[in-house]
Amino acid sequence: MEYVSLKGTINSAVKVISFTPYLVRFELKTAEQNYNCLVAKDALNFMYLAEESAPIAIFGHFNKRHQLIVDKYHVKNVIQNFSVVR
To answer: What are the two backbone dihedrals, phi and then psi, of residue 45, each rounded to the nearest 5 degrees?
Structure first.
């Protein structure tokens, strides 16, 4: 299995494909090409963090259908729109 590490932006809306197991799909746009990505690990948190056109760094591998299965991700500049009330 070959692992890849990519940086880019989320190019589409984040969509739920399956609820059992919870599976999320989005399109990653890099400088070279676009990738269809699937997130299964920690998918609920990904749905909370990810927004369209947000910068993201991912680590994962490809399946038989040439979809990128995301093992780890980091969505950048997510908390800037939130405020804390104490």
So the answer is: -65, -35
Q: In whole angstroms, how far apart are CA 65 and each of 9, 35, 40, 51?
A: 22, 12, 16, 25
Question: What is the distance between the alpha carbons of residues 46 and 17, in angstroms, rounded to a whole number?
Answer: 14
The residue-averaged pLDDT of 8-17 equals 94
| CA 74/CA 86 separation, integer angstroms | 27
CA separation for the pair 34, 13 (Å, rounded):
14
Q: Is the whole-model pTM more than 0.85?
A: no
* Closest to 28 (Cα-Cα) out of 46, 47, 13, 44: 13
Residue 79 backbone phi and psi in degrees, to 5: -85, 0
